[in-house]
UniProtKB/TrEMBL annotation:
Pfam families in alphabetical order: CT_A_B
Organism: Streptomyces purpurascens
InterPro entries associated with the record: CT_A_B (IPR003778), Cyclophilin-like_dom_sf (IPR029000), PxpC (IPR052708)
Protein's name in the database: Biotin-dependent carboxyltransferase family protein
Domain Carboxyltransferase: 27-289
Keywords: ATP-binding, Hydrolase, Nucleotide-binding
NCBIfam families (UniProt xref): urea_amlyse_rel (TIGR00724)
UniProt KW Nucleotide-binding keyword: yes
PANTHER family recorded: 5-OXOPROLINASE SUBUNIT C
Amino acid sequence: MTDRALAVVRAGALTTVQDLGRPGHAHLGVPRSGALDGPAADLVNRLVGNPPGAAVLETTLNGCAVRPRSTVTIAVAGAHCRVTMDGRPVPWGAPVRVPAGALLDVGPAVSGVRAYVGLSGGIAVEPVLGSRSTDLLSGLGPALLTDGTVLPLGRPTGVHARVDVAPQPAPPAELVLRVTLGPRDDWFTPEAVRAFLSRAYRVSAAGNRIGLRTEGPALERARHGELPSEGMVLGAVQVPPDGRPVVFLADHPTTGGYPVIAVVRAADLPAAAQAVPGTPVRFVAVRRR
Protein backbone atom coordinates (compact mmCIF):
# COMPACT_ATOMS: atom_id res chain seq x y z
CA MET A 1 0.00 0.00 0.00
CA THR A 2 1.29 3.48 -0.82
CA ASP A 3 2.70 5.57 1.99
CA ARG A 4 0.89 8.61 0.57
CA ALA A 5 -2.15 8.05 2.77
CA LEU A 6 -3.94 9.42 5.80
CA ALA A 7 -5.52 7.36 8.57
CA VAL A 8 -8.54 8.79 10.35
CA VAL A 9 -8.16 8.20 14.10
CA ARG A 10 -11.16 10.28 15.23
CA ALA A 11 -13.76 11.05 12.59
CA GLY A 12 -15.76 13.58 14.59
CA ALA A 13 -19.46 14.33 14.31
CA LEU A 14 -19.52 14.85 10.54
CA THR A 15 -16.31 14.97 8.54
CA THR A 16 -16.45 14.73 4.76
CA VAL A 17 -14.17 15.07 1.76
CA GLN A 18 -14.97 18.22 -0.25
CA ASP A 19 -13.64 20.12 -3.23
CA LEU A 20 -15.27 22.61 -5.61
CA GLY A 21 -18.23 20.27 -6.11
CA ARG A 22 -19.95 18.99 -9.24
CA PRO A 23 -22.06 21.84 -10.68
CA GLY A 24 -23.75 21.33 -14.01
CA HIS A 25 -25.53 18.06 -13.29
CA ALA A 26 -28.84 19.33 -11.92
CA HIS A 27 -30.62 17.95 -15.02
CA LEU A 28 -29.55 14.50 -13.77
CA GLY A 29 -30.87 15.20 -10.27
CA VAL A 30 -27.34 15.57 -8.88
CA PRO A 31 -26.68 18.46 -6.44
CA ARG A 32 -23.55 20.58 -6.79
CA SER A 33 -22.12 19.70 -3.33
CA GLY A 34 -18.61 21.02 -2.52
CA ALA A 35 -17.19 22.88 0.48
CA LEU A 36 -19.81 25.02 2.24
CA ASP A 37 -17.21 27.64 3.16
CA GLY A 38 -15.42 27.88 -0.17
CA PRO A 39 -13.03 30.68 0.85
CA ALA A 40 -11.79 28.65 3.84
CA ALA A 41 -11.25 25.57 1.66
CA ASP A 42 -9.38 27.71 -0.90
CA LEU A 43 -7.23 29.15 1.87
CA VAL A 44 -6.02 25.82 3.26
CA ASN A 45 -5.13 24.68 -0.25
CA ARG A 46 -3.08 27.84 -0.84
CA LEU A 47 -1.35 27.43 2.52
CA VAL A 48 -0.16 23.89 1.74
CA GLY A 49 0.75 24.61 -1.90
CA ASN A 50 -2.14 22.82 -3.58
CA PRO A 51 -3.86 24.01 -6.76
CA PRO A 52 -7.38 25.43 -6.39
CA GLY A 53 -9.99 22.73 -6.04
CA ALA A 54 -7.84 20.06 -4.40
CA ALA A 55 -9.92 17.91 -2.07
CA VAL A 56 -9.83 18.80 1.63
CA LEU A 57 -11.55 17.63 4.82
CA GLU A 58 -14.58 19.54 6.11
CA THR A 59 -15.29 18.97 9.82
CA THR A 60 -18.41 19.90 11.77
CA LEU A 61 -18.30 21.35 15.31
CA ASN A 62 -15.98 18.88 17.05
CA GLY A 63 -13.16 18.44 14.54
CA CYS A 64 -11.26 15.23 13.81
CA ALA A 65 -7.87 13.57 14.34
CA VAL A 66 -5.69 12.12 11.58
CA ARG A 67 -2.35 10.32 11.26
CA PRO A 68 -0.38 10.59 7.98
CA ARG A 69 1.71 7.65 6.80
CA SER A 70 4.32 9.96 5.30
CA THR A 71 5.40 13.51 6.06
CA VAL A 72 2.83 16.03 4.85
CA THR A 73 2.13 19.72 5.22
CA ILE A 74 -1.26 20.39 6.79
CA ALA A 75 -3.22 23.60 7.37
CA VAL A 76 -6.45 24.14 9.29
CA ALA A 77 -8.76 27.12 8.73
CA GLY A 78 -12.44 28.05 8.84
CA ALA A 79 -13.91 27.58 12.31
CA HIS A 80 -11.39 28.63 14.94
CA CYS A 81 -10.18 25.63 16.94
CA ARG A 82 -7.23 24.30 18.90
CA VAL A 83 -4.86 22.23 16.76
CA THR A 84 -2.27 19.89 18.30
CA MET A 85 0.38 17.50 17.01
CA ASP A 86 1.11 14.62 19.37
CA GLY A 87 -0.48 16.70 22.12
CA ARG A 88 1.54 19.87 21.50
CA PRO A 89 -0.16 23.03 20.17
CA VAL A 90 0.58 23.97 16.56
CA PRO A 91 -0.65 27.02 14.61
CA TRP A 92 -4.18 27.33 13.27
CA GLY A 93 -4.42 29.18 9.95
CA ALA A 94 -0.83 28.38 8.94
CA PRO A 95 1.01 25.47 7.28
CA VAL A 96 2.39 22.83 9.65
CA ARG A 97 4.83 20.03 8.75
CA VAL A 98 3.47 16.78 10.18
CA PRO A 99 5.89 13.82 10.22
CA ALA A 100 4.81 10.29 9.32
CA GLY A 101 2.98 8.66 12.23
CA ALA A 102 2.31 11.89 14.14
CA LEU A 103 -1.22 12.52 15.37
CA LEU A 104 -2.76 15.80 14.24
CA ASP A 105 -5.83 16.64 16.28
CA VAL A 106 -8.29 19.31 15.12
CA GLY A 107 -10.23 20.22 18.25
CA PRO A 108 -13.81 21.40 18.74
CA ALA A 109 -14.79 24.70 17.17
CA VAL A 110 -14.29 27.61 19.55
CA SER A 111 -16.13 29.89 17.12
CA GLY A 112 -17.80 28.94 13.86
CA VAL A 113 -19.03 25.51 12.78
CA ARG A 114 -16.85 24.00 10.05
CA ALA A 115 -13.08 23.65 9.98
CA TYR A 116 -11.17 22.77 6.82
CA VAL A 117 -8.07 20.59 6.75
CA GLY A 118 -5.84 20.93 3.71
CA LEU A 119 -3.05 18.42 3.05
CA SER A 120 -0.18 18.78 0.59
CA GLY A 121 -1.09 16.79 -2.50
CA GLY A 122 -4.79 16.80 -1.65
CA ILE A 123 -7.04 13.86 -0.89
CA ALA A 124 -6.88 11.56 -3.91
CA VAL A 125 -10.06 9.50 -3.71
CA GLU A 126 -11.60 8.59 -7.06
CA PRO A 127 -13.70 11.45 -8.49
CA VAL A 128 -17.38 10.90 -9.31
CA LEU A 129 -18.79 13.10 -12.10
CA GLY A 130 -15.61 15.15 -11.93
CA SER A 131 -15.62 15.78 -8.17
CA ARG A 132 -14.28 14.13 -5.02
CA SER A 133 -16.97 15.77 -2.85
CA THR A 134 -19.20 13.79 -0.51
CA ASP A 135 -22.85 14.56 -1.20
CA LEU A 136 -25.15 13.85 1.75
CA LEU A 137 -28.32 14.01 -0.34
CA SER A 138 -27.49 11.78 -3.32
CA GLY A 139 -24.84 9.63 -1.63
CA LEU A 140 -22.31 10.31 -4.39
CA GLY A 141 -18.63 10.61 -3.57
CA PRO A 142 -16.68 9.05 -0.70
CA ALA A 143 -18.56 7.82 2.35
CA LEU A 144 -18.72 9.86 5.54
CA LEU A 145 -15.46 9.40 7.40
CA THR A 146 -15.41 6.91 10.25
CA ASP A 147 -12.69 5.94 12.71
CA GLY A 148 -10.16 3.81 10.85
CA THR A 149 -10.87 5.21 7.37
CA VAL A 150 -7.71 5.43 5.23
CA LEU A 151 -7.62 8.11 2.53
CA PRO A 152 -5.08 8.21 -0.32
CA LEU A 153 -3.12 11.43 -0.79
CA GLY A 154 -1.83 12.91 -4.02
CA ARG A 155 1.73 13.97 -4.72
CA PRO A 156 2.59 17.56 -3.75
CA THR A 157 2.90 19.88 -6.74
CA GLY A 158 3.66 23.22 -5.08
CA VAL A 159 5.44 24.90 -2.18
CA HIS A 160 3.60 25.76 1.01
CA ALA A 161 3.00 29.40 1.93
CA ARG A 162 5.37 31.32 4.21
CA VAL A 163 2.98 32.90 6.69
CA ASP A 164 2.61 32.94 10.45
CA VAL A 165 -1.19 33.22 10.48
CA ALA A 166 -3.43 33.87 7.47
CA PRO A 167 -6.19 36.46 8.10
CA GLN A 168 -9.72 35.07 8.02
CA PRO A 169 -13.17 36.53 8.65
CA ALA A 170 -14.73 35.84 12.03
CA PRO A 171 -17.97 33.84 12.16
CA PRO A 172 -20.96 36.18 11.95
CA ALA A 173 -22.39 37.64 15.13
CA GLU A 174 -25.41 38.40 12.93
CA LEU A 175 -25.94 36.59 9.64
CA VAL A 176 -27.06 39.14 7.04
CA LEU A 177 -28.28 37.44 3.88
CA ARG A 178 -28.91 39.61 0.82
CA VAL A 179 -31.78 38.23 -1.22
CA THR A 180 -33.58 38.76 -4.49
CA LEU A 181 -37.32 38.23 -3.96
CA GLY A 182 -39.02 35.55 -6.02
CA PRO A 183 -39.79 33.56 -7.94
CA ARG A 184 -42.71 32.62 -5.64
CA ASP A 185 -42.99 35.59 -3.28
CA ASP A 186 -46.52 36.08 -4.64
CA TRP A 187 -47.50 32.86 -2.87
CA PHE A 188 -47.21 34.78 0.43
CA THR A 189 -49.28 37.59 1.90
CA PRO A 190 -47.82 41.12 1.75
CA GLU A 191 -47.58 40.99 5.55
CA ALA A 192 -45.55 37.78 5.34
CA VAL A 193 -43.13 39.29 2.81
CA ARG A 194 -42.68 42.33 5.05
CA ALA A 195 -42.07 40.05 8.05
CA PHE A 196 -39.52 38.04 6.07
CA LEU A 197 -37.55 41.22 5.33
CA SER A 198 -37.94 42.95 8.69
CA ARG A 199 -38.30 40.39 11.47
CA ALA A 200 -35.44 38.63 13.25
CA TYR A 201 -34.80 34.93 12.67
CA ARG A 202 -32.23 32.66 14.27
CA VAL A 203 -30.15 29.77 12.98
CA SER A 204 -31.74 26.46 13.99
CA ALA A 205 -29.69 23.52 15.26
CA ALA A 206 -31.62 21.32 12.80
CA GLY A 207 -29.68 22.56 9.76
CA ASN A 208 -27.08 20.58 7.83
CA ARG A 209 -25.20 20.64 4.51
CA ILE A 210 -28.51 20.48 2.67
CA GLY A 211 -29.99 23.60 4.18
CA LEU A 212 -29.75 26.21 6.93
CA ARG A 213 -33.01 26.07 8.87
CA THR A 214 -34.31 29.06 10.76
CA GLU A 215 -36.43 29.75 13.82
CA GLY A 216 -38.73 32.76 13.89
CA PRO A 217 -42.09 34.04 12.67
CA ALA A 218 -44.00 31.69 10.39
CA LEU A 219 -44.73 33.14 6.95
CA GLU A 220 -48.39 33.04 5.97
CA ARG A 221 -49.27 31.94 2.47
CA ALA A 222 -51.63 33.83 0.20
CA ARG A 223 -52.08 30.68 -1.89
CA HIS A 224 -52.68 27.26 -0.37
CA GLY A 225 -52.73 24.95 -3.38
CA GLU A 226 -50.05 22.50 -4.39
CA LEU A 227 -47.04 23.82 -6.27
CA PRO A 228 -45.71 21.45 -8.94
CA SER A 229 -42.06 20.50 -8.37
CA GLU A 230 -39.67 22.96 -10.01
CA GLY A 231 -35.93 23.48 -10.18
CA MET A 232 -34.05 24.62 -7.09
CA VAL A 233 -30.83 26.65 -7.05
CA LEU A 234 -28.08 27.23 -4.51
CA GLY A 235 -29.26 29.84 -2.00
CA ALA A 236 -32.98 29.32 -2.68
CA VAL A 237 -35.07 30.24 0.40
CA GLN A 238 -37.79 27.63 0.47
CA VAL A 239 -40.70 27.87 2.89
CA PRO A 240 -42.06 24.49 4.03
CA PRO A 241 -45.52 24.04 5.62
CA ASP A 242 -44.32 25.22 9.06
CA GLY A 243 -43.66 28.66 7.52
CA ARG A 244 -40.00 28.93 8.64
CA PRO A 245 -37.54 29.74 5.82
CA VAL A 246 -34.88 27.21 4.83
CA VAL A 247 -31.80 28.42 2.93
CA PHE A 248 -30.56 25.75 0.52
CA LEU A 249 -26.83 25.02 0.76
CA ALA A 250 -24.47 22.91 -1.35
CA ASP A 251 -26.20 19.52 -0.99
CA HIS A 252 -29.66 20.93 -1.74
CA PRO A 253 -32.19 18.96 -3.82
CA THR A 254 -32.36 19.92 -7.47
CA THR A 255 -36.18 20.12 -7.43
CA GLY A 256 -38.75 21.02 -4.80
CA GLY A 257 -42.45 21.52 -4.33
CA TYR A 258 -42.55 24.22 -1.65
CA PRO A 259 -42.55 27.89 -2.74
CA VAL A 260 -39.26 29.79 -2.89
CA ILE A 261 -39.78 33.29 -1.49
CA ALA A 262 -36.29 34.56 -2.40
CA VAL A 263 -32.74 33.58 -3.40
CA VAL A 264 -29.66 34.46 -1.34
CA ARG A 265 -26.63 35.93 -3.08
CA ALA A 266 -23.89 33.31 -3.40
CA ALA A 267 -21.32 35.62 -1.78
CA ASP A 268 -23.23 35.47 1.52
CA LEU A 269 -23.40 31.69 1.78
CA PRO A 270 -19.89 31.01 3.20
CA ALA A 271 -20.86 32.99 6.30
CA ALA A 272 -23.99 30.83 6.60
CA ALA A 273 -21.70 27.78 6.79
CA GLN A 274 -20.06 29.22 9.93
CA ALA A 275 -23.18 30.56 11.71
CA VAL A 276 -23.69 28.64 14.94
CA PRO A 277 -27.19 27.72 16.13
CA GLY A 278 -28.84 30.73 17.74
CA THR A 279 -27.10 33.28 15.51
CA PRO A 280 -29.53 36.06 14.50
CA VAL A 281 -30.44 36.00 10.80
CA ARG A 282 -31.64 38.98 8.80
CA PHE A 283 -32.86 38.83 5.20
CA VAL A 284 -32.27 42.02 3.20
CA ALA A 285 -33.79 42.60 -0.23
CA VAL A 286 -31.25 43.97 -2.71
CA ARG A 287 -33.27 43.73 -5.90
CA ARG A 288 -36.95 43.22 -6.61
CA ARG A 289 -38.44 41.62 -9.67
